[in-house]
Prior knowledge:
Order of helices and strands: HHHHHH
Oligomer: single chain
Shape: elongated
Distance between the termini: 14 Å
Number of strands: 0
Helix content: over 70%
Strand content: under 5%
Number of helices: 6
Largest sheet: none
Structural class: mainly alpha
Radius of gyration: 18 Å
Amino acid sequence: MEPRDHIHVTGSALKNWAVAQIQDSIAVAVLWLLGLWILKIPWAPLWAVLAAVLQVIPHLGPVLSLLGPVLSALLRWQDWEHPLYVLILYAVIVVVDGLLLQPYIMRRVARVPMWASILVPIVLGFAIPFWGFLLAPPLLAVVYAYKARRTA
């Protein structure tokens, strides 16, 4: 295999991973928008767009996207119930995204099996704290692109 082929396979795999990441961000934004509209949280479209942008940052981004809606609910109703509903919505979105959406999108776009996109970030996160979580998804896309190329 020539260096040009390696660059092509790696570049194609990283492009597929980026497309999968964008699709996941859009899906998370839609979930946030629907949930915040149901809860009648002020500025729901803004918080949904912000959640989509911050979704790119692994693990820290989703937590940061939670701050705006919680503060907005707290300032609007000045009780503990509405911010609690936003926290419950956040928990549901994180579970649905982490266990269903991301693995499904990675399987469909980047050809990474669902089990690998769930298990490998956890293992790499323990082996290389922070960097393991950050590098696992694009690394998986590249590894499975080479695997598909070898079998083809």
